[in-house]
Amino acid sequence: MRIPFLHSNCFPGEVVDLIQEAVDEPCSQNQNVMTIDYSICLHRQRMKIGECDLRIGSNDELTYAGNIGYRIYDGWRGNHYAYQACLILFDIAKNRLHQKELIITCSPDNIASHKTLVRLGGKYLRTADVPEWHWLYKRGEKLKEIYLFVL
Fold first, then answer.
1. Residues 56-100: pLDDT tens digits?
2. CA end-to-end distance (rounded Å), the chain
3. Rounded CA separation 38/107 (Å)
4. How many CB atoms lie within 10 A of CB 123?
5. Residue 5 — very low, low, confident or very high, per pLDDT cuts 50/70/90?
6. According to the model, what pLDDT value does residue 33 have?
7. Span of 2-6, 28-32, 108-112, 123-127 with lowest mean pLDDT
8. Which residues contact 94 (CB under 8 A, 6 or more apart)?
9. How far apart are the C-alpha atoms of 3 and 80, rounded to whole Å?
10. Residue 56's pLDDT is what?
């Protein structure tokens, strides 16, 4: 018998649910961007299959990192779970945080993420060189495809 999944910080979707785990308030250490971290769980289950975050605002750091980041764990990939999580994040950003648009980026060699962004209806803006000062560059990510999403 399954027990219904209830959580006070649960944002349910049709396929996955997002569970809010933490909120980092804007400060100089995070480029003055509020970041909300979520677990991605199978709908109505406690099975964590990935994680994502929503970064609120617009600045040089987010031009390359984007407003949304996501990661689906090995073994769970290929089921469009990142797509489903982004749909929930779009709703949160628009209806709770009053955002009008978001940027999501991916590395050109990340085919799965590229397909997710196209499936979400993103408008491709450009492929950009990541500046040397950026934390993405420091971990080896030198190029980013940048997509715009109007909410």
1. 988 998 999 999 999 999 999 999 999 999 999 999 999 999 999
2. 39
3. 22
4. 11
5. very low
6. 86
7. 2-6
8. 100, 151
9. 25
10. 93
Fold category of 10-150 in CATH: Aminopeptidase (3.40.630)
- The residues facing 34 across adjacent strands are 56
Strand pairing partners for 103? 148
Going by DSSP bridges, is the β-strand pair 10-12/101-106 parallel, antiparallel, or unpaired?
Answer: unpaired
Quote the tokens at residue 18. Answer: 């997002």
Indicate the pairing of strand 101-106 with strand 123-129. Answer: unpaired
* Helix, strand, or coil (residue 100): coil
Q: Which two tokens stand for residue 95?
A: 């209806």
Q: Which residue in 38, 12, 35, 15 sits closest to 25, CA to CA?
A: 35
Q: Please state, in angstroms and as integers, the Cα–Cα distance from residue 43 to each residue in 66, 71, 125, 129, following that order.
A: 26, 17, 33, 37
pLDDT in tens, 44-54: 998 999 999 99
Instruction: Provide the 8-state DSSP code for 129.
Output: E
Q: Looking at this protein, which amino acid is placed at residue 104? A: I
Residue type for position 127: T
